[in-house]
Every structure is written in structure tokens, then in C-alpha cells.
Amino acid sequence: MSTDIDLTGFITLLRRETLRFIRRPRNTFIPPFITNILYFSVFGVVLGERINLIAGVPYILFILPGLVVLGAISNAFENASFSIFHGRWNRYIEEAITSPLSYRSMVIAYVLSSALRGVIVGILVALIGAFFTAVGVAQPVYLAAFGIIISLLFAALGVAGGLWADDFDDLTMMNQFILRPLVFFGGVFYSLNELPLILQQVSLLNPMIYMVNGVRFGFLGVSEVDPTQSLIVLVGLTGIVVIGDIVLFRRGYGLTE
Questions:
Q1: What are the backbone angles phi and psi of residue 139, rounded to the nearest 5°?
Q2: Cross-strand partners of 57
Q3: CA distances for 88 relative to 2, 54, 93, 167, angstroms
Q4: Where would I find the ABC transmembrane type-2 domain in this sequence (predicted)?
Q5: Closest by Cα among 115, 44, 68, 75 to 216
Q6: The pLDDT of residue 117 is above 80
Q7: Suppose 79 and one of 114, 135, 252, 255 were both cysteines; which one would form an S-S bond, judging by CB atoms 3.0 to 4.6 Å apart?
Q8: Angle formed at CA 132 by CA 68 and CA 134, multiple of 5 degrees
């Protein structure tokens, strides 16, 4: 009986969180649509005509995987963090935490719905890129695996961020001043081989390098780091963050005054 209640509650929460962003495309899908048209127009078309091939591919095609990563992780993180914080702010998250639903099911529902938004936006960015250049998929399994796992990872991080934030400014700060700079310095617009050796070594400390190169391997079949090792590490890291979210929910971190 408890299993039936947990499953019903999980599906209900997952459906609510999914419909929350699907019903508001002006806030969820149109902004990344416009932003990425600008990215492809300025960096891909204008600058791409002045830059030689990178890793044997046209510049506009080289930057596409990084923009896909940026769109996916930003939206997955933003969806989870805003949903959790908004629920805390308006106190309707209490409906979930006082229900028979297990903490594990709550966290997974929030993470899956937010990851879905990240995947959808990532696909949207790729489709926008297809209007500017010929987009192929060299390694579909790797592309799907990296796209899903990075969305799940940042959705899980977004849950923790939503519990930690004290106000809406904290949410903006995390997305705009932490995530985006890491992505921009994660090899989106340049190749690691173009950097001095010391900067190459420092760049390898940036986890975005592995995500961007993993998605790039999926699209183009080229990568500056081992995609299999990167994927294994990301899967493990995602599991750790999700477990951490469950522990935070169980302890009531950020949920109780």
C-alpha cells in the first residue's frame, strides 16, 4: 500500500513540476532560443569567417556542443533551484514534505523534471545550430549519455542551491556568476591545444572541460579528454549529489525555520 502511495505521489509531483515549465514557454524556452540565435550569429557566423578550422572542423560547428551544454545545465539548474526556493518562499513545499511521499521520491521527481527541461533546451539549441551549419551526430550513444547525465547532475545541484539560497539574488548569482563563467572557460569557444601548457593544466581543473568535450565527442567524434573516463566520473558525481540532496531533505535543511 505504501509503495502505491509513494508511486502515485512521485508521479503527481513529477507531473506538476514538468507542467510548471512547459506551460510557461515565454520564460523557459523563448529566452534560450533568442540568446542562442545571437551566439550563433555573432560567434559562429561573424567570427567564424575569420577563424581557421579548429580540430579539423569549422568554428561554428566547434562551438555548438559548448552552447548545447550551456543551455542544458543552465536550465536544469535554474529550474530545480527556482522550484525549490519558490516553494520555500511561498511555503507550498510543505505540502510535499508533509505528505506520505518519501524524501527519495521527492528529490528524484524534482531532479527528473528539471533535467527534462535541460535536455529539451539542449535539443532546442542543437536545432538552432542546424539552421546555421550542417549538424551531424558522430557518436549518438555518447551524445545521449552526456546530455542526460549533465542535465541530471545540474538539476541535482539546483536542488541543493534552492535549499541553500536565502533570496532570489542568490539564485541569480549562482547561475550567472558561477555556472556561466565556468562554461565559458570550459573550452566552448576555443581549443585547449591553443593555450599555453600551464593554462592547459589549469583548465583541466574545470569540470566543464569534460562535459563540453563529452558532448563535442558525441556530435563531432573529437575530444581533447577521454570521453569514457569523463562519463564514468560524471555518473558517479551525479549519484553523490543526488544522495546528498536526499540527506538534506531528510534533515530538513532549508525547509524548516
A1: -130, 80
A2: 54
A3: 26, 46, 6, 10
A4: 23-252
A5: 68
A6: yes
A7: 114
A8: 85
DSSP state of 205: T
What pLDDT does 228 receive?
94
Taking the complete model, does pTM exceed 0.85, yes or no?
A: yes
What SS3 state is found at 146?
helix
Distance, in Å, from the CA atom of 129 to the CA atom of 124, rounded to the nearest integer, reads 9
**For the stretch 18-52, what's the b/e string if a residue is b when 16 or more beta carbons lie within 10 angstroms of its beta carbon?**
bebbeeeeeebbeebeebbeebbeebbeeebeebe
Cell of 7: 508511486
- Cell numbers for 138: 558522430
Q: Is the pLDDT confidence value at 107 over 90?
A: yes
Task: Give alpha helix (H) positions in the chain.
Answer: 2-22, 25-28, 30-39, 59-89, 94-97, 103-130, 140-164, 168-174, 180-184, 197-203, 207-220, 227-251
- Report pLDDT digits (tens) over 16-70: 999 999 998 888 899 989 988 888 888 767 666 667 777 778 888 888 998 999 9
Rounded Cα gap, residues 105 and 58, in angstroms = 44
Q: The cell 563563467 sits on which residue?
A: 181
More confident residue, 243 or 170: 243
Whether 220 and 61 have beta carbons less than 8 Å apart is answered as yes
